[in-house]
Structures are given as C-alpha cells and as structure tokens.
Design brief:
about 300 residues; alpha/beta; Rossmann fold; CBS-domain; 2 domains; five-stranded parallel beta sheet; three-stranded mixed beta sheet; 15 helices; about 15% strand
Length: about 300
C-alpha cells in the first residue's frame, strides 16, 4: 500500500505543469472564496483541503455536492472560484454545481483522473491525477487516489501561501489555540511590562535594590541611567559575590554586571529559550533602542506551552 502510494505521489509530482500554475492563478486572484465540493471520499478530502486553505490565509469553505442541488448553490457567489473533486469525473451530484458555475461565469478547477470526463471537459482548468490505480488486491476502494487528492490540495495551499508571502505571524492569527499557536508565541506575548519591571538607578543604595528584588518576582534588578538605558543588572549571584557587612554601604552601580544579557520583543519564545539556556539565566530584560521595555522569565515560557 505505502509503496503504491509513493509511486503515485512520484508520478503526481512529475505531472504538475502549466495547469497547476493556471489553477494557482485562479485561486490567487479570486476576489471571494474558494468553494470546494465533492461526494463520498472525495468529499471528505474536500473538507480537509478547504480547511487547509482557510488556515493558511485563503478564504475557503466546503459545499456538499448533493446539498448544493437543494439550496446550497446560494452559498456560491460571483467572485468565488470552485474546486470540484471527483476521481471518475462523472459524479452525478456534481452536475448542478458544474452547470451553475458555467451559467454564472464562476471559475471551475477540477481534480479528477479522467481527462475525457464530464467534469474535466467542463472545467476551466483540469488537474489530472496520474493513472496508477488503487492499492490492494481488489484495487477498488479509494486509497491511492484520495492520497493524491490530499497531496495535490496541500500543494495548492502551500504554493498559494508562498505566493501571498504568508508568515508565521499570519499563521498565528488563524491558529490562536492549540500547540501550533503556542509554538508561535513571541517574546512580546509573554514578557512582563510597565510597573512589573524591577528597575533601579546606579546610585540606588543596595538596601533599596534588595527590597526591589524582593518585591518583584524575577530575582534581578535592572540598572538604568538617567536617559532610561539599561546599563547593568544586579542578580542573586552579584549579591552572593558581595555579601558581607559592606554590601549595604554600596550602590547598584558598585556591584552590577555591566554587560547584561538581553533579548528583543520580536523573536519567537522558543528562540529566547535557546538563548537563555545558552546564557544560563532564568530571566532576561527585553530592550528596544537600549531601553528596557519588558522582562522575560524562563518559567513563563515553559508555562505557556511554547516549548
């Protein structure tokens, strides 16, 4: 079965040409939505293709071929394009849908295995599946054909995604929930801001610095100059290195680490984790133009599920 599917996918990859580009032109320039339709196993595949298109920035939905004949044709409007799927190209339930697209000048792209079929000959663009047959002893149940349909639908979605310049930020908009959305969290989504930032001046007495570190939850204090630039950081390690009777006679500027590790707000949280592990720190200030705009804790990233 898997070898048969692989042979079919290899044949499909070698057959894509001008018609595939023509289909991308139709879908990429459509003013409305891509309406996917099919019956039986092709219908199940169509639902998946429509969902994949929608999740990658191409407005799309599925219309059941039989229901289209009983009122759902009204869901298809001028400015839309139709992707009809039928292995044989002779699915009778598609007849009314085909007629509707021809009557109202709605672009029709067909996925089928038969170039001489009713669907293929009516379509503006034919995307033909290679003639490799179905898997198994009987060679009858839809197996290889549906695998090729799904692969072709994915190829359309990915090609359109690349044409549109679809980014990880765009993807996150359509996937705010679940693991995919969490993987695309940026530092800006998880950092603490405003009054939560533990900031002191270089002249701040160490007793006040310790109070600040105790009051906040990060175990560090950022040291900023009069212009608001981050010039250092006081950590638990700095306190331990200067512990003694003289500690509270010192200022933040006396004991601070002058080259603190920092990050920016626009990188992915998973990248921030990699950097923080490399630096062996659990908190890092987020800076913009040298000024702290947030602070990020490793614990917050882990709790978010971003890694």
């Amino acid at each position: 079965m898997l070898d048969h599917a692989k042979a079919g996918l290899d044949a499909l990859a070698g057959s894509l040409g001008d018609n595939f580009v023509a289909a991308l032109d139709i879908f990429g320039n459509v003013a409305g939505r891509v309406v996917v339709s099919g019956m039986g196993k092709s219908g199940h595949v169509g639902r998946k293709i429509a969902a994949t298109l929608a999740s990658t920035g191409m407005p799309a939905f599925f219309v059941h071929a039989a229901e289209a004949s009983h009122g759902d044709l009204g869901m298809i409007a001028a400015g839309d394009a139709v992707l009809a799927i039928s292995n044989s190209g002779e699915t009778p339930e598609l007849a009314d849908l085909i007629s509707y697209t021809r009557r109202y000048g709605i672009p029709l792209v067909a996925i089928t295995s038969r170039a001489r079929s009713t669907l293929a000959e009516a379509a503006d663009v034919q995307l033909l599946l290679p003639d490799v047959g179905e898997a198994g002893v009987l060679g009858l149940p839809p197996t290889t054909s549906t695998t090729l349909m799904i692969a072709l639908g994915d190829a359309i979605a990915v090609a359109l995604l690349e044409r549109k310049g679809f980014t990880a930020d765009n993807f996150k908009v359509f996937h705010p929930g679940g693991q995919l959305g969490r993987k695309l969290y940026k530092v800006a989504d998880l950092m603490h801001r405003g009054d939560e930032l533990p900031l002191v001046q270089p002249t701040t007495n160490m007793s006040d610095v310790v109070l600040m570190m105790t009051k906040k939850i990060f175990g560090v204090a950022g040291v900023v100059d009069s212009a608001g630039h981050l010039v250092g950081i006081v950590t638990d390690g700095d306190l331990r290195r200067h512990i003694g009777d003289a500690l509270f006679k010192m200022t933040a500027g006396d004991i601070m680490t002058k080259t603190p590790r920092t990050t920016t707000a626009n990188i992915l949280a998973v990248e921030a984790v990699r950097r923080m592990n490399e630096w062996k720190v659990t908190s890092a200030f987020v800076v913009e133009d040298g000024k702290p705009i947030g602070i990020l804790r490793l614990h917050d990233i882990l709790r978010s599920g971003a890694v």
